[in-house]
Structures are given as C-alpha cells and as structure tokens.
Design goal:
CATH architecture of the largest domain: 3-Layer(aba) Sandwich
Largest sheet: 6 strands, parallel
CATH class of the largest domain: Alpha Beta
Number of helices: 9
Radius of gyration: 18 Å
Low-confidence stretches: none
Strand content: 15-25%
Shape: globular
Distance between the termini: 17 Å
Strand order of the largest sheet: 5-4-1-13-14-15
Bound molecules: magnesium ion
Number of strands: 15
CATH topology of the largest domain: Rossmann fold
Order of helices and strands: EEEHEHEHEHEEHEEEHEHEHEEH
C-alpha cells in the first residue's frame, strides 16, 4: 500500500550503456538522476554484472552523481543468486566466477565451498576460467548440486567491442552436463523478486539499453520500460516486436521529461 511518504514512482536503472559505458560516465546521466530524486522518484539500480558488489556499485554511483546511494538500492546478478540460494535452503556453493561474486554469495549466509559435494554450483563471469574448473563444476552438478547461473548474457560490451559473457560459460557447463539451470539475472524471476523487495511505489519503470534483458525484465514483471540508445541498441530500427519498449530516448537527458509526462 502507498503511504503518504511513498515515492511518485520507482525507476529501475540498468548501468552499463545507461549510466556509464565501461569507466566513462554517460553525459546527462548524473543530472537526470538528481532531478528525478528532487521530483520524488525512488531510484534502483540493477545489473547483470557479477564481477562487482552492490557496495562497489553504490560507491561508484555516488562518485558520479554526488547523490547518496544506499547499497540496498543496488541489485547485482551475484546478489540475486545469493538471495535465491538462501530462499531455496542452499547452505554451500561452489563458485565459478570472480572474488566479488564469492563475496556477494557469502553475504547471504551461503558457505563458499570447494567442488566436493556442494549444495549448489553458481556460474558467473570468470575471466580466469580453465578446463579443470569446468570439469569440477560439471562433476558437482552431475553429483546432484543445483545448477545456478548469475545471468545468461552471451556477451558484454568493452572498449574493444563485445567480449564473451557469463552466458557463454554457463552454456559450456550446461552442454557438458546436459542439465538445466536457474538464471538469477535479468530478465529472470529471482532478479524481479529481489528488485521488488526494494520497490516502494506502485509505478515502476525500467530504463535500459538491452532489449532481451532490460526491456524483457519490464515485460516479465509488468512494469513500464524506456530504451535508451546510448548502449548496445544504437538505433530504433533494431527494435523487434518481441521486446518493444514503451518509450525510446536518445540518452538520459530526455528521461526526466518523459517520466513527467508518463501516463499516471
Ligand atoms: Mg546495459
């Protein structure tokens, strides 16, 4: 229920391609965020990047925007995986991924275990991946461990172009085991559940640059959607019917105006 202090609405921002690209802030993003806060909007940040933690993201956003960003308003796919594991009664997990993913999983009280009989195997982006790790993860899954993915993104953007994403590693282990997995990233249900825990308004609008994750998330959750053309989708002509956004903007500069005029 809405209380008198409820925000006018909640904006769920994707990060890479929306607020920044790699290490470079997107012009107008910080100003748009500040203006939305002044107008009474709640800001939430949701990323499929499993190589960072909510705390690290919050600090970075504060440095860029000069706003106070609570780490609870940041949802990463690693946090989503940790939250999911805690809700299904998993106590130990073997992690294929970054140190930040281990921390994100441990933050939910999950014991970060070796590959001998863990309750679950969590697979995220692992830039140091080797054959032995794929073998260890596959054996644990064949021995009955739950198979959980941080996300299924095939690639992610870098300054040198697209690089293989967590989804490419998940696919290798899925192929080796023949097992199905639960994804905890956008647009899957565990991510929607964790974001929903933070939402304090009835109106929710997702702002993202990727159709099959950000806009798909909005569709799956029944939220509004805005596609910005500063990231992986560079032209409105790339938009198919399947993940059509409600509104397309050239960049974050246009967002406050669009939200002011949003049908309420
Ligand atoms: Mg993005």
């Amino acid at each position: 229920m809405k209380s008198p202090e409820s925000p006018v609405g909640t904006v769920v921002f994707d990060l890479d391609g929306v607020v920044y690209i790699g290490s470079t802030p997107i012009p107008g993003a910080a100003e748009a965020m500040a203006r939305l806060v002044r107008s009474g909007w709640q800001l939430i940040f949701a990323t499929n990047n499993s190589t960072t933690t909510p705390n690290n993201v919050a600090q970075r956003l504060q440095e860029q925007s000069y706003l106070t960003i609570d780490e609870r308003s940041v949802v990463t796919s690693g946090a989503s995986a940790g939250h999911y594991l805690s809700t299904v009664g998993v106590e130990s997990a073997f992690i294929v991924g970054s140190q930040q993913l281990r921390e994100s999983i441990a933050a939910y009280g999950i014991f970060v275990a070796g590959h001998d009989h863990p309750d679950a195997v969590v697979v995220g982006l692992d830039r140091g991946l080797d054959y032995q790790t794929i073998d260890d993860a596959s054996r644990a899954i064949r021995n009955g461990a739950r198979f959980v993915a941080t996300n299924t993104d095939a690639t992610f953007p870098t300054s040198e172009g697209e690089a293989p994403g967590a989804g490419a590693i998940v696919a290798a282990i899925a192929y080796a085991t023949g097992q199905d997995f639960v994804s905890c990233g956008k647009p899957a249900r565990p991510m929607i559940d964790l974001i929903s825990q933070q939402v304090r308004s009835e109106r929710v609008i997702v702002v993202g640059d990727r159709l099959e994750t950000d806009i798909a998330l909005a569709h799956a959750a029944g939220w509004g959607s805005v596609l910005t053309l500063t990231g992986v989708t560079s032209s409105a002509s790339d938009i198919g019917e399947e993940f059509a956004p409600d509104v397309v903007i050239a960049s974050m500069h246009e967002l406050p105006k669009v939200l002011e005029l949003w049908d309420r």
